[in-house]
Amino acid sequence: MPSHPTRRPEEKDSSEERIKRFLATASHDLQSPLRHIAMYAELLLDDLQETLDGEQLQSLRMIMEKAQTAQRLTKALMNLAGGAPQVTPEEVDLQPLAENIWGELIDESAVRDAALESRGLPSIRSDPALLGLVLRHLLANALTYRGDAPLHVAIAAERMGADWFIWISDNGTGIDPAYRERIFEPFWKLPKAGTVPGAGLGLTTAREFLTALGGDLSLEHSDQSGSRFLIRLPVA
Fold this sequence. Notes:
Elements: H1 9-48, H2 54-82, E1 90-93, H3 94-109, E2 114-117, E3 123-126, H4 128-144, E4 151-160, E5 163-170, H5 202-212, E6 216-223, E7 226-234
Parallel strand pairs: 2-4
Antiparallel strand pairs: 1-3, 4-5, 5-7, 6-7
């Protein structure tokens, strides 16, 4: 693997300040519209639930729940920008969490030749909002950096001693060895023709959230056959 020059302390501090300012500003600006979306959805539910059919009620409840989830996530991002996100641990069933996130991403991306293998995932004690955001970033990356073959993503989990280990594997394009030291850097994106430019904060934020949860995120393996990321989380 090629060596990379070590960043000077002032460069690291500057990068961390940039990400904190970005997260604080974006999260603050999103709080008000998200609060209003959730509030109006709740008002509509109260006023119209007797006149709407089951599918319409489900759609309206989904709008309210997604807005409330987004509110929790933006608050977590604001806390992260201020030092560390607030962690609210509870029992999290990984199986429906992964399936729901995958279904949302498939709808958003309109990718129809992608499959998720995630049978038998356990329940663990963690913060569902933060862990859900981590999974969303990793699954979204797999969809973005897929190869020519139909995408196959697998999630597996196993308890080893005092930790849970969760593997997310794909059969995508893999990550060039020249870039493997950079994928967790803020504001840096893996080059790929045709991808929509973004902030380059997905993996950075995911690792920060896992650090707040007492865990870690690493790239365990990557080559032309695909990539495998590893999430480590404490059992308690």
